Amino acid sequence: MAEQKKLVAEITSMDEDFTQWYTDVVVKAGLVAYSHIKGFLVYKPAGYALWEAVQNLLDARFKKTGVENVYMPLLIPENLMAKEGDLVNGFAPEVAWVTAGGSEPLQERLCVRPTSETVFSDFFRTDVQSYRDLPKVYNQWCSVVRWEKETRPFLRSREFMWQEGHTVHASEEEAKARTQQMLNVYADFCAEDLAIPVVKGRKTDKEKFAGATATYTIEALMHDGRALQSGTSHDFGTKFAEAYGIQFTDRDNKLKFAAQTSWGLSTRIIGALIMVHGDNSGLVLPPRIAPTQIMIVPIQQKKAGVLDKAYEIRDMLKDFRVKVDDTDKSPGFKFADQEMRGIPVRIEIGPRDMANGKCIIARRDNHEKTECDIASLPEKMAELLPQIQKDMYDRAAKHLEDHTYSAATKEEFVRLFTEKSGFVKAMWCGDQACEDKIKEDLGVTSRCMPFQQETISDVCVCCGKPAKKMVYWGRAY
Amino acid sequence: MAEQKKLVAEITSMDEDFTQWYTDVVVKAGLVAYSHIKGFLVYKPAGYALWEAVQNLLDARFKKTGVENVYMPLLIPENLMAKEGDLVNGFAPEVAWVTAGGSEPLQERLCVRPTSETVFSDFFRTDVQSYRDLPKVYNQWCSVVRWEKETRPFLRSREFMWQEGHTVHASEEEAKARTQQMLNVYADFCAEDLAIPVVKGRKTDKEKFAGATATYTIEALMHDGRALQSGTSHDFGTKFAEAYGIQFTDRDNKLKFAAQTSWGLSTRIIGALIMVHGDNSGLVLPPRIAPTQIMIVPIQQKKAGVLDKAYEIRDMLKDFRVKVDDTDKSPGFKFADQEMRGIPVRIEIGPRDMANGKCIIARRDNHEKTECDIASLPEKMAELLPQIQKDMYDRAAKHLEDHTYSAATKEEFVRLFTEKSGFVKAMWCGDQACEDKIKEDLGVTSRCMPFQQETISDVCVCCGKPAKKMVYWGRAY
């Protein structure tokens, strides 16, 4: 127990200092290490395995909707980047520039991709000729670079991994439908695989993606009541097509500009996993995304038959992602280490239990311990893992509900953001000036105009003019 | 048939101009498109699907040997790159340099990774403390940049995708064993999944990787008789550990330098797939790697029931990767297009066959067409696909055997490289001067010193001094 205490004691309590708790978990759970360059992370096996799990689950969902994976160049010529004015203005301050190849200076600077609308559009310009070539529903898994000033593991990095989907369509209606389809894919993925409930909606013009006609978003609420934008889907209409010359001959034999979308979800989502489910013992992983779902810990493992029994149980559970911790560490250390890493279920097996054909099952999410017949472990696990997944979702959904408030008046709005942390639903007139003022006064931004609109009052919570939209407001990562 | 001819006519015959044939296949099979930057490719869906298949199959083989995936930063500080002298000298002429982040010039140049020994070593320096931390068997899937002068799709690009494995061990013996284990993984992957036989051996000092104490290689023979280095595995001994300070406390409580390896296989392997198996109708894919194994082509698809029957057959064959080509192109066009793309098996189904419960099966590899009962298609395919895989391997193995020659004398060596194309086995004294002379005179390089040594003669084929090793020589991509 001394060892266990020591290990656990190294994490700051989340109630004491949430920011430090987060950093502690990220490092102590072995997810990442820092490199010599600010904002460039080393993904260690436990961290990369989470990203691999995200990739596998999300990619399967993509492919069901007809997505094809491709890969575009890492570097983008400056003049290509500059063709769509809003995009280049949005990204120019934060791109990394390659100016030499080998010992030769380059004739034209190349930027390391911060996002790939430009190269996809340039490719579509020649690849799309006729309505018969449409739609193209492409995606790439890659890393991108944005020279951020402030960085935090997963949440804001100079290099981060993501997927970026890019599609071309014959009509704006079809493009719009695709953006919403992909937003739903993200929301379902978060809810079903990550046990994270999200609010779906549209970004205001101030908060939308540079170059988009509309940006849709899923917003999640972290344990500390701050919001995290967890995935976005952009409708470009024909804006990029006009800038890059993507035209096709339609069925009516007329030359038309194509409509486009893009949508992305990044390693940020790992930050959401940590901050939605984690506790003071470390990470808590939902079973569906957990690289290891069950860890078997032999007790008094040097006693005859204990390790063999542990391996036998592992082999009984081969339908799950299961491992035996047969290192020479103490059980107490193993317990604490596996809790830190968020493994959903621990099975303890020692000489006494073995003699009775029993073992102990410990749930990571609620720390519940129960005894179980070894023989019935496979059925028990087939029930327990989905139950944990559901309980984790329900807990997160309750947290979201409990921390979503409504404000009809400015006083109420200010009071809520002073006394509480979470989302506040309030009406908005549609003017950016009110968003700017709210941000300046309270450090709060409009997270989204939810698809499910409600009427909290008739007037803007900021200026008192007639309201146009109900908005989720929050302090965001 | 006019359409089919037209499509096929667009490929140059491989006997006429192999280089042009290769470029034609790469483009017409829809694998890649060129971007605005020389040597940076767009991987289209068919090209990326091949790389995804390589990743899935190879990654599964890696994980069976205990490999864990990680991810290291894309950019490397110049001073970190420079710590190991041989490596930096080997790569300095061909790296791309980032000199500005956003609008600010950087204080230190960062290179886009050409390979990641330096960042892995720097990470291991702090991550490895004790023999209990060893071995670490890590791998990353990523893209790298090398500013090559001459570029060709897949074979030599400025950006290419690969995996790079990096391991640390407590002893040099264990590191050496890991390099050979991974070389065998590559060779088995090539033979079993890609139907490509390879020669395994060790590189000469002239041809080894910058910074390695030994480089092992697998060498494949292309259809035109040229060699392609298809995967390499490097033993570093303690060289990088000494340069980067990777030390650990061993069981005997002494501080020791760790031993390291690295091993890589890249998108080059797609070039090998094309040039080993392709023919004058285009790409020919072995079934195990083919993203689509079976394509069903409905004949007279507008007639009642034809398309439904095609979908019914697809559903019967759901254990395979199967699709129906239900586009409005003509059957002739579809046949030619699918041959170009190398799909292993085509099933033709039309009204006449349907009435008899029959269909036509066409093999891509040998153009054989047979009739088959629709009801027995699942069993037929379960036999046929492995048969095609085997036949393709056997054909490639025969080609390798038929184009591997032996030269006991210099005259014979020169005659073979003048009249024939392929590997020539010949003895070597061990001096780089002879390698240099052979390269200068004949454009031929030492491909490897094969593990299976033979004695062709007692003296070096170049200088006549006593021979030390039998070497495979060849003209290489």
Q: Please state the oligomeric state of the protein chains shown.
A: homodimer
In this structure, how is the largest beta sheet of chain A organized? 11 strands, mixed
Q: Helix tally of chain A?
A: 15
Point out poorly predicted stretches of chain A. none
Q: Name the CATH class of the largest domain in chain A.
A: Alpha Beta
CATH architecture name of the largest domain in chain A: 2-Layer Sandwich
Question: Could you give the order of strands across the largest sheet of chain A?
Answer: 3-7-8-14-11-10-9-22-23-21-20
Q: How many distinct domains of chain A?
A: 3
Ends of chain A: how far apart?
A: 36 Å
Please indicate the percent range of residues of chain A in DSSP E strands (runs of 2 or more): 25-35%
Largest interface: A-B, 53 and 53 residues
Sum up the overall morphology of chain A in one term: globular
In CATH, the homologous superfamily of the largest domain in chain A goes by the name: Bira Bifunctional Protein, Domain 2
At the fold tier of CATH, the topology name of the largest domain in chain A is BirA Bifunctional Protein, domain 2
Q: Average pLDDT value of chain A?
A: 95
Helical content class of chain A: 25-40%
How many DSSP E strands of chain A?
23
Which structural class do you get from the secondary structure elements of chain A?
Answer: alpha+beta
Report Rg of chain A. 25 Å
